[in-house]
Amino acid sequence: MRCPFCQADDSKVLDSRQTENKMAIRRRRECAVCRRRFTTYEKFEEIPFMVVKKDGRREPFSHTKLLAGLAKACEKRPIPSIVLEESALTIERMLRDIYEWEIPSQAIGEAVMERLFQIDEIAYIRFASVYRQFTDIQKFMEELDDLLRRKNQPEN
Predict the structure, then answer these.
(1) What is the DSSP secondary-structure string of the chain?
(2) Using one digit for the tens of pLDDT, what is the confidence trace for 4-60?
């Protein structure tokens, strides 16, 4: 690993640890030439994950966009940001397990709805109203009825 200070090619690893989310390795290094210390991160290279939109366009999957959607639905709700981040990671992991290269945008929307159903009913309805594009009160009431029915179902 090249030293960022003197550009020497020789350094030794002093300490290695997993990051908190266990998605990377943090290495503390020391340059053999200038003796300065620096930190590097080793992360697996992910396969580019493309989202296929309703109109057929493709765009790269964005964890930031997923998290922003969750945050918008949960705005002004008593939901800690760590819950949103963990939810986004869980949704992304689940989608990567199911889809290899491309994922329909509808699958992302459904996964977000399922997760929000578990987290907060109001956030679920907020997201559903945008995602399902309610055009009248009847569609909204149908979604509320579905929410109540699912909530009252006994768990297996």
Answers:
(1) ---TTT--S-EEEEEEEE-TTSSEEEEEEEETTT--EEEEEEEPPPPP-EEE-TTS-EEE--HHHHHHHHHHHTTTSS--HHHHHHHHHHHHHHHHHH-SSEEEHHHHHHHHHHHHHHH-HHHHHHHHHHHTT--SHHHHHHHHHHHHHHHHSPP-
(2) 999 999 999 999 998 777 778 999 999 999 999 999 988 776 677 899 999 999 999
